[in-house]
Design goal:
This protein is of the alpha+beta class. The chain contains one helix and six strands.
Length: about 100
């Protein structure tokens, strides 16, 4: 086995031993027809939403934003979004299984 193959096998073994890795970056796509005004997220068991992850930015309908998810203890994260018309939506995302959140 050449060195490249050995390194590849070692890398696969390391990934297999650590289990599913959390997505570090998530793409949020806004297909709602309304501007996304605020976005909050936290681990499922955390009662604190933390800051608005869009900051001073908004995501127009048809647009997208990239957000960073910090490493956590589990894959499921609560999300809360607020649109320019005041409507809010709350949902859970398994960040270990997807890298994109489509808002429809």
């Amino acid at each position: 086995m050449n060195i490249s193959a050995k390194l590849a096998v070692a890398g696969l073994m390391m990934v297999a031993s650590t289990g599913a890795a959390l997505a570090e970056r998530m793409r949020v796509v806004n297909n709602t027809g309304v501007t996304l005004y605020r976005l909050y997220f936290s681990e499922v068991n955390d009662n604190n939403w933390g800051p608005d992850r869009l900051g001073q930015n908004v995501v127009q309908s048809g647009g997208a934003a990239t957000i960073d998810i910090p490493g956590g203890r589990n894959c499921n994260w609560d999300f809360l979004v607020e649109y320019a018309n005041g409507v809010q939506d709350q949902f859970v995302v398994n960040v270990c299984q997807t890298g994109t959140i489509n808002l429809n």
